Structures
1.
Amino acid sequence: MAAPHASSRYPWLVLSVTSLGVILTLLNVGTLNVALPVIAKHFHATATTANWILLTYMLFNTVFILIFGRLADMLGRRRLYIVGLTLFTLVSLLIGISPNIWVLLGLRALQAAGGALVITNTTPLLTDAFPERTLAKGLGINVLVSSAAQLVGPVIGGLFAATLGWRWVFWFNVPFGIIGIVWAAFTLRSLPSKGSNERFDLAGNILIFIALSGAILALSEGSTLGWTSPLVLIGALAFIVLTPVFLRVEWTSKSPLLDLRLFAKRRYAMAYVAAFLNAFARTAVVLLLSLYYQTVNHADAFTAGLAILPVTVGMLVAAPLSGSLTGRYDARLLSSLGLGLSGVGLVILIFLIGPHSAYLPAAIGMFLVGAGSALFLTPNTSSIMTTIARERRGIANGVRSMLQNMGQVVSTALSLMIVTSGLAPRLQASIYAGNAANLTDRDLQLIDNGFRLALLAMLLATCIGICASLVRGKKEAM
C-alpha cells in the first residue's frame, strides 16, 4: 500500500528530518558510555550513583516510549516529534549547568522524555511517508544513520570529556537540536489521527513504570547493597507482583498502553522478542568494553572511545547491505543470520580479550557484533511495520522501541551487576574510576573475570534470540 503524501521527494525529506533526531538521541547514549568515569569523578559519585547516570535516562526513556507510542496515534506524530526534539535540546543545555548529581539525574529523566518522543515517532513517520516498495531502503538508511551516530558518539564523548570537559558532552546537542526543530517544522506534514477519541491508559502507565523501576532497582543495587537488602527486595517484589497485574489490566482495557493482541501472532511475538535480545546483547558490549579499556587497560576516555569504534563501524558497513537484502529475502533468514554474526563476535571477545592481549582479535569481535546487529535491525523492523495498519503503527513501533530500550536498560543494569557482584566495594568503585583506579595484578584478574562473565551472559541472550527469530514463521498480513 502506498503511503500518504508519498511524492518522489517527500519521503527523503522526512528521512532527513528523522535522521537529525536519531543522530542527537543516539549520540547522547554513545557519548555517555565513554564519558561516565569523568562525570562520576567530577561529582564524586559512588558506584551506585554512577550507575544511575546511565540508568535514569534508560529507564524513563523505556517507559515513555511505550506511553508516547499510544499518544502519537492519538495526537499526531508531527506535533509530538517537534515537542520531543525541543524538550531534548532544552534539557541538554540545562544538564551542562547542573550544580549537583541529583539535579543532573532529574534532568536526565526529562531528557529521556524528549528522546522518547523523537524515537517513538521516527519509524512511523518513515513508514507513513515511504511507499512499501522503497520502505526497506528508507529504514536501511535510518539504521545507517543510527550506526554513524553510534560510530562518532564514543569518540565525541571521549574527546569532549578529555579536553573541554563533560558539560560539552551535552551542550554539543544544542545547535543541532535547534536546526532539527526548524527543519521539522517546515518539512513534516500533518496526517489525520484515527485514534483521537481513545482513552489514555493511566493505570497501565503507572503499573509499568513501578514494575520496571523495581526490576532495574533490584538488578542495579543487588551486588552493591546485597540481595537481602530491603530496598532490593522491595524492588524485586514490585516487579514480580505488578507485572501480571499490568498484563491483566492491559488485556481487559479497551485502549491499552500495551496492545497484547500484537503478540497473538507468532511472527510478531518472536520479532519483538528478538528485538529485545539483540538490543540486550549489543548495548552491554559497547558499555562493557568502554569501561574495560579505561579500567583494565588504563586508557583515557578519548582512547577508549576510539577502541570501541569497530562495533559501530560494523553497523555502518552492514546497514546498507541489510537494507538492500530486506526486500529480497525473508526477515527470518536475515535477522537470524545477523544474530548469528553477533554471537560469533561475542565468542571472540570472551576468549581473546585480556589486560595484555592484542587489540586486533578484539576489534574483529566488536566488528562482527556491530555488523550482525545492523543486519538484524532492518528486516526485523520492516517485518513488524509493513503489515500493520497505519493507525496502529505508532503503538506497534512503540512496543518495538520499548522492548529495544528495555533490552538496553536491563542489559546495562545486569551486565554491571555481573561485573561487580564478585568484587569488594573498593574494586566496585574502581570500575567507574576509569584510568584513575589503582589496581594490583590480582585486582585486574578479578575484574577481567567479571567482564568475561558478563559477555558470556550476552552470548546466551544472543543464542536465545536466534531461536526466537528462526521460529517466527512466514509473513502474513495483520
2.
Amino acid sequence: MKCVFIIVGVGGTGSLLARDIPKLIIKQPHKMVLIDGDTVEEKNMVRQSYQSHDIGENKALALSTKINTFYGNICEAVDKYVTNKEIVELVKSYDGYIPVLIGCVDNDKTRMLLEQTYHDLNDCIYLDSANSEYDGNVYVKAKIQGNETGVLRSEKYNLSQDIHPADKSCEAQVAEGNIQYLVTNLKMATTLLEHISAIVHGSAKEGVTIVKRFETVHY
C-alpha cells in the first residue's frame, strides 16, 4: 500500500512530526505533503522545527526544503490555508496512493474542514491530534474500500467553530515562560509517529490514543 502523508498544520506538533516521518518512509514508495499558510516567527524557535534563518518564510515551504535536502525529493508543500475541495483535489493528483490525513491544528473550524474532507474521499486514514498544556489525544478513523473503523472527534463531542478555542494560544503561553507545551508537543508528535509507523507496516491502529503526563493509553 502506497501512502501520501498529508500534514495540515506544521506548528508545535506538526513540525516535529514532519521532521521525523522521512526516517520511516525513506527508500519506500510513500510521499508526504505539508500544508500551512503561516509564517515562521522568532517565537517559533522555542518549540518548533525551525531555525532563525527561516524567520519570515512560509512554514510549509521552509520545512519541506529541509526535508528534501536531507532525504531527497519526498516532500511537497502547500503554502496557504486550504479548503476541503482543494485537499480533495490534491489527493486526486496522487493517483494510486492512500491518503493519510494528519490534522495538527489548534482550532475546531479546521477540524470540521478535515472531517468533511475525510467524508468526501473514497479511501482515507485520518489522524486528528489535539492537546492542552499537559494532556492530549489522537483520534484515528480509516475508510478503505468501503470498510470504516475507528472514530472521528465529532462522533464523541460537538466541535465548535471558534478560531481559537483557548483563551491564550500555545505560543502566547510559551512566550510567558511556559515551556510545558514543548514537552507535550513532543509527546503528541511521537504518538502520531507511532501511528504512522503502524500504517507503513500495514496495521493501522484505529480508535483513540490518550496522552497524559507520564502516561499514554490507546483503546
3.
Amino acid sequence: MLDDRQFREAMGKFATGVTVVATEVDGNIHGMTANAFMSVSLNPKLVVVSIAEKAQMLEKIKQSGTFSVNILAADQQEVSMIFAGQLKNHQEVVFEHLNGVPVLSNASAQISCEVSAAHVEGDHTLFIGKVTDIRIEDAEPLIYYSGKYRRLAED
C-alpha cells in the first residue's frame, strides 16, 4: 500500500507553475494558491482547477459560478505564500477585474472563467472553466518543485 508521504513526494517531482485561483461572493474576494491547474481544450477554450473538499474556496466557486486563474510571475512568491496561508502579516493584495472576475495585478497571465462543469473525484472537485477573457504580461514564471519555489535559469 502506498503511503500519503510517498505519494506527495512523487507528485512534488513534477515541476509546475504557481497560480492563485480567485472568485468573488457578495463583494468579497477570495483566493487560494494552487498548482493543480491545466488547460483542457482549445475549442471551446476550457481549463480545469482541482480544489480540495476541505478548502473554503470550494463553496465560494460553487456560489459565484466564476473564477480566475492567475499564473504568477517570478516576483510574486510572497503573493503565493499569502494565499497559501503561509504569511499572516502582510500588505493588502490588490485585485483588478477581468470580465467581472477578480484577477491579480502583475500576474504573467490572468484568465477569467465561468464554471461549465464540476466533477467530484476523491477528496477534490475538478472545476471545468469556460475561458471568458485573458490578459497576458511578459514576465518570468514562478516555479514550484519538490516543495520549494524556484525560478527558471537561462542556459
